[in-house]
Design goal:
This protein has 196 residues and is mainly alpha-helical. 76% of the residues lie in helices and 0% in strands.
Length: 196
């Protein structure tokens, strides 16, 4: 058993608990040096870099994690997320698509894909992905709002109304935002009693 990798990994966890990320990174790296196949250490390093919004470094360690465990849907999603945060939407979509092929119930990958498509102005594809995200997470008001906006941009007023009615039940504030952002005067009755 490789005790050194575990010793450094546990020290890193302790440093993270006390908000000492630099020290945690040092120990996670040492753990990975002692065992280049230490998946958890690679992921932990990537997560710290994501928290610091250092997406280029996070990408390096997510790729390292995927070298260790190829085809890991959650890590592929995370790699897509860092691509998206760097404005690399096509690469993000590719990762999100791969993640949902491996794990079709990964709702956050469907949502990420929808948002990336929307950012590229590809609203039909955005709507398709967001429909799936909303189906998988029926209480996710962010996904429902984004779905409503995608259908608004597709000039599909009936679907926008359906989404607004659903949001009125699960997230009145998101409903108000959707009605305002789509300038749907016919749906004002849904939000007339809400404080601004």
């Amino acid at each position: 058993m490789n005790f050194e990798k575990h010793r450094h990994f546990l020290r890193a966890r302790l440093f993270e608990t006390f908000k000492r990320q630099d020290r945690a990174l040092d120990d996670y790296r040492l753990a990975l040096q002692h065992d280049p196949q230490f998946f958890k250490a690679a992921v932990a390093i990537a997560l710290i870099h994501v928290q610091r919004e250092d997406y280029a470094q996070a990408e390096i360690f997510y790729r390292e994690a995927l070298r260790i465990k190829p085809g890991h849907a959650d890590i592929i999603f995370n790699l897509g997320y860092v691509h998206d945060q760097q404005g690399r939407r096509e690469e993000a979509i590719s990762c999100f698509r791969e993640a949902v092929q491996l794990k079709p119930t990964l709702d956050r990958a469907w949502y990420g894909m929808g948002m990336a498509y929307a950012a590229l102005g590809r609203h039909d594809e955005a709507a398709n992905a967001l429909e799936e995200a909303s189906r998988l997470q029926p209480m996710n008001t962010y996904a429902w709002y984004a779905l409503g906006m995608a259908h608004h941009r597709l000039n599909n007023p009936e679907r926008v109304k359906e989404v607004a009615l659903y949001l009125h039940r699960i997230g009145p504030l998101s409903c108000r935002q959707l009605v305002q952002d789509t300038q749907r005067s016919d749906l004002q009755y849904l939000i007339k009693d809400m404080a601004v």
